[in-house]
Amino acid sequence: MLDTQLTDEQTQLKKTVAAFAREVVAPVAAHHDETKTFPYDVVRQMGEMGLFGLPFPEEYGGMGGDYFALCLVLEELGKVDQSALVPLISHWPSCSTAVVRVPPASLPAPASVSPKAPNASPAHSRGSHCSFWASVPKR
After folding, report:
1. How far apart are CA 85 and CA 120, in angstroms?
2. From residue 40, how far is each of 72, 83, 87, 101 by CA, in Å?
3. pLDDT at residue 91 in the model
């Protein structure tokens, strides 16, 4: 029989993301929709939480989570603002998945996070593509 109960860790992740969605995403969602602006601060905080590295191994800069945890995150954010999902779902397959397929020792150490973000801090480690969004400068 399939066990449908969440683990303590999954329950905590769900609660944490639900609170973030209510307290950070929801208050600015309508503003960004109306003004057609990108929520840099929200995305930066998602990066600080480690959400961009959730389904990737820790040795590559990820959080070591699985795809079920990823689904919990998407579900909680999506309850508040579907557009908050876009940076996450576009980042995972197009950016971070490549990190898992390439041994970290073969990756060059990045000089900076982005040429468009000169004030951003350098990436933390060779596998730190997962932490990129945590370094987005405040606007």
Report:
1. 23
2. 22, 12, 10, 28
3. 75
